Amino acid sequence: MRVCVLGSGPFGTSLANVLAVHCEQVWLWGRNGQVVDSINTRHENSAYLAGIPLSPRIRATLSLEEALSSAGLVVSAVPSHATRNVMRAALPSLPSGVPILTVSKAIEPETLYTMTQMLKDCLPASFHPFIGILSGPSFAQELARGLPTTVTIAATDEALARYCQRLFQTPTLRTYTNTDVIGVEIGGALKNVIAIAVGMIEGLGFGFNTRSAIITLGLAEISRLAVHLGADPRTLSGLSGMGDLVLTCTGELSRSWQVGFELAKDRALEDIFRSIKKPMIEGVKTAQSAHALSTRTGVELPICHQVYLVTYHQKSARAAMTEVIDRQFRELPSGP
């Protein structure tokens, strides 16, 4: 079987390596010629996953047409802000009826669409039944190294989810299926915003008790919004809710946590992005989207709101997190 992964970054490359366990040909599309050459000649993504061997079944290319030809599965692992343009460019080469999985965890600021909603917006209706998402607690480095990992594959068509599940299942990657696409997507996107808040909490020296409280309250925020948008509340207690949130809030490999930690030192966002060699991270963009969704729906998201004020209105991390904490002590608790 031949499959295609769009995006030769760390996560796309890691997933290509997973798919190579069961698939004879895995085509990995990227824009960086040096990365493509490294994968094809040395079986290594030296830019993002240096030292981790890749399957010889993986073939990298700069050509969308070559990557997509006769694909039985397409995985979109490009950054969320590039997804529309890449998918529009890919459309002439997309095989009819091919399953398309996005792995981006974001909400588009301009439309407030989740990633599967964005794909449906930019692809013809004939592709819509075959769109799903892979999400869950998974750092690319650990996935590529073969460390035990669990993720969720969600699609409205359970048969589609199970088809994709079989392709991703390996001795070290356990995949679960779900039909609650909106719950999986909101959980995956908003956890990045909460992770920024947790990074600020730790950078400010508030301690582990406070960190635990913010994670718990953050999960309650995510659940309120997701349920309002039609999610099953049980989804948020699973891998793509609690699981992904805990990983992103406690693992120092998390870029969202790193950004929050550095914001606590009163560093400018642009300076932080330069130091981590990223022009933007999903958590910062999603803070803007979460603020807009809160305004649109009337669902209160106090932690996300404070992260939005820090990242878009230069409020100090200390003032924002102090307000979050004061709010919890000021109000009579009734949950979570």
TrEMBL record:
<dbReference type="GO" id="GO:0051287">
    <property type="term" value="F:NAD binding"/>
</dbReference>
<dbReference type="Pfam" id="PF07479">
    <property type="entry name" value="NAD_Gly3P_dh_C"/>
</dbReference>
<dbReference type="InterPro" id="IPR011128">
    <property type="entry name" value="G3P_DH_NAD-dep_N"/>
</dbReference>
<keyword id="KW-0594">Phospholipid biosynthesis</keyword>
<dbReference type="GO" id="GO:0006650">
    <property type="term" value="P:glycerophospholipid metabolic process"/>
</dbReference>
<feature type="binding site">
    <location>
        <begin position="7"/>
        <end position="12"/>
    </location>
    <ligand>
        <name>NAD(+)</name>
    </ligand>
</feature>
<feature type="binding site">
    <location>
        <position position="278"/>
    </location>
    <ligand>
        <name>NAD(+)</name>
    </ligand>
</feature>
<dbReference type="GO" id="GO:0046167">
    <property type="term" value="P:glycerol-3-phosphate biosynthetic process"/>
</dbReference>
<dbReference type="GO" id="GO:0141153">
    <property type="term" value="F:glycerol-3-phosphate dehydrogenase (NADP+) activity"/>
</dbReference>
<feature type="binding site">
    <location>
        <position position="138"/>
    </location>
    <ligand>
        <name>sn-glycerol 3-phosphate</name>
    </ligand>
</feature>
<keyword id="KW-0521">NADP</keyword>
<feature type="binding site">
    <location>
        <position position="140"/>
    </location>
    <ligand>
        <name>NADPH</name>
    </ligand>
</feature>
<comment type="function">
    <text>Catalyzes the reduction of the glycolytic intermediate dihydroxyacetone phosphate (DHAP) to sn-glycerol 3-phosphate (G3P), the key precursor for phospholipid synthesis.</text>
</comment>
<feature type="binding site">
    <location>
        <position position="191"/>
    </location>
    <ligand>
        <name>sn-glycerol 3-phosphate</name>
    </ligand>
</feature>
<feature type="binding site">
    <location>
        <position position="140"/>
    </location>
    <ligand>
        <name>NAD(+)</name>
    </ligand>
</feature>
<dbReference type="GO" id="GO:0005829">
    <property type="term" value="C:cytosol"/>
</dbReference>
<feature type="binding site">
    <location>
        <position position="255"/>
    </location>
    <ligand>
        <name>NAD(+)</name>
    </ligand>
</feature>
<feature type="binding site">
    <location>
        <position position="31"/>
    </location>
    <ligand>
        <name>NADPH</name>
    </ligand>
</feature>
<keyword id="KW-0560">Oxidoreductase</keyword>
<dbReference type="InterPro" id="IPR013328">
    <property type="entry name" value="6PGD_dom2"/>
</dbReference>
<dbReference type="GO" id="GO:0008654">
    <property type="term" value="P:phospholipid biosynthetic process"/>
</dbReference>
<dbReference type="GO" id="GO:0141152">
    <property type="term" value="F:glycerol-3-phosphate dehydrogenase (NAD+) activity"/>
</dbReference>
<comment type="pathway">
    <text>Membrane lipid metabolism; glycerophospholipid metabolism.</text>
</comment>
<dbReference type="GO" id="GO:0046168">
    <property type="term" value="P:glycerol-3-phosphate catabolic process"/>
</dbReference>
<dbReference type="InterPro" id="IPR006168">
    <property type="entry name" value="G3P_DH_NAD-dep"/>
</dbReference>
<dbReference type="InterPro" id="IPR008927">
    <property type="entry name" value="6-PGluconate_DH-like_C_sf"/>
</dbReference>
<feature type="domain" description="Glycerol-3-phosphate dehydrogenase NAD-dependent N-terminal">
    <location>
        <begin position="3"/>
        <end position="160"/>
    </location>
</feature>
<feature type="binding site">
    <location>
        <position position="11"/>
    </location>
    <ligand>
        <name>NADPH</name>
    </ligand>
</feature>
<feature type="binding site">
    <location>
        <position position="244"/>
    </location>
    <ligand>
        <name>sn-glycerol 3-phosphate</name>
    </ligand>
</feature>
<keyword id="KW-0547">Nucleotide-binding</keyword>
<feature type="binding site">
    <location>
        <position position="48"/>
    </location>
    <ligand>
        <name>NADPH</name>
    </ligand>
</feature>
<comment type="similarity">
    <text>Belongs to the NAD-dependent glycerol-3-phosphate dehydrogenase family.</text>
</comment>
<feature type="binding site">
    <location>
        <position position="255"/>
    </location>
    <ligand>
        <name>NADPH</name>
    </ligand>
</feature>
<protein>
    <recommendedName>
        <fullName>Glycerol-3-phosphate dehydrogenase [NAD(P)+]</fullName>
        <ecNumber>1.1.1.94</ecNumber>
    </recommendedName>
</protein>
<feature type="binding site">
    <location>
        <position position="255"/>
    </location>
    <ligand>
        <name>sn-glycerol 3-phosphate</name>
    </ligand>
</feature>
<dbReference type="Pfam" id="PF01210">
    <property type="entry name" value="NAD_Gly3P_dh_N"/>
</dbReference>
<keyword id="KW-0444">Lipid biosynthesis</keyword>
<feature type="binding site">
    <location>
        <position position="136"/>
    </location>
    <ligand>
        <name>sn-glycerol 3-phosphate</name>
    </ligand>
</feature>
<feature type="binding site">
    <location>
        <position position="282"/>
    </location>
    <ligand>
        <name>NADPH</name>
    </ligand>
</feature>
<keyword id="KW-1208">Phospholipid metabolism</keyword>
<feature type="domain" description="Glycerol-3-phosphate dehydrogenase NAD-dependent C-terminal">
    <location>
        <begin position="180"/>
        <end position="321"/>
    </location>
</feature>
<dbReference type="GO" id="GO:0005975">
    <property type="term" value="P:carbohydrate metabolic process"/>
</dbReference>
